[in-house]
């Protein structure tokens, strides 16, 4: 009998799988399911990016390349970081991996020792704590409350620091909340991290998806000292609608980059070569398609918030998101009530009942460490979004 390793047994299964499986079953049965659980743009990859991959195939660029990435791609990433973020890196400090999730795993695997504590603001992207545990670390959660815009403060981070604290995972714009930290807020957090020599894994995958006049500021920009403690993680999946292409990257101090490159050379080796050429085209080519996509998300966000404002009379509330493509809909006012005789205890119950009775798929907040809300994505058509919100309103009215 093959026994599963202790580190893998420590990883919790995804709580969203049951909801996703049920939604797929309903669709297969011909039901019209409105899916608010989508975590990827519903736009096609820009044509010139696809063409670059086709050209690479036609030219025979189908062989192994350097494990850490094509030199031309690393140079394009260096240029992007300078132009967009005013950050200076050398190509030797860039590692190209199989998606930003892979970059995050590499970063933690290369820095976290057994017993090291990793500070994670919650609500969090559900993968963060599982990767920490897989690498032998211990998640230490800092609660970002709805009343404070789902943002933790420097004072909260300071209070959570212990002698075992090794890293802070920082995500702005944030999945699942859409929160965007201001430059001032980030600088205060950086001061705490520098004082206590805390590594920051800065997940900036939603960097381009910001609305309402807010701007993106990387914590690595705060000071040379903070930059030396920062691992910047980014990619092309969200900004360029390239989720299935699987390419992310990180930028970090050279010594760490060499260690990560060595590890990746023995695990996955290089990202598929055609995707790397496509990503060069994405970073260096015409960004009109990306801007149009962001504009469309902005319009959907506006419509969703207007619709949710009209639902406040039903006892529902939300926290206004400034980035990504998610809204956290507070549903705790329903707890203790019943729907069709079934008592509602938490966000998982709300999600299950919505899917069963209203054919609306939403992600329960308990998956992200906050059981008071549902995460609603607006990466779906405006028509579906408005219809889905109407179905949610009907559900709330029928709860007694």
- Estimate the helix proportion, in percent: 40-55%
The largest pleated sheet is described as:
7 strands, mixed
Structure class: alpha/beta
For the residues shown, what is the average pLDDT? Answer: 96
Backbone CA Rg = 21 Å
Number of alpha- plus pi-helical segments: 14
Rough outline: globular
* DSSP E strands, number: 15
Order of helices and strands: HHEHHEHEHEHEHEHEEHHHEEEEHEEEH
Beta strand %: 15-25%
Q: Outline the low-pLDDT stretches.
A: none
Strand order of the largest sheet: 2-8-7-6-5-3-4
Ends apart, CA distance between termini: 51 Å
Structure, briefly:
The protein is of the alpha/beta class and 400 residues long.
Task: Write up this protein.
With 400 residues, the protein is an alpha/beta fold. Helices cover 41% and strands 15% of the residues. The protein contains 14 helices and 15 strands. It has helices at residues 6-9, 17-28, 47-58, 71-85, 100-111, 127-134, 154-160, 183-195, 224-228, 254-267, 273-284, 288-309, 347-358, 382-398; strands at residues 34-35, 94-97, 117-122, 138-143, 165-171, 199-203, 230-235, 248-251, 317-319, 326-330, 338-339, 342-343, 360-361, 363-364, 373-377. Strands 2-8-7-6-5-3-4 form a seven-stranded mixed β-sheet, with helices on both faces. β9 (317-319) and β10 (326-330) form a beta hairpin. α5 (100-111) packs across α10.
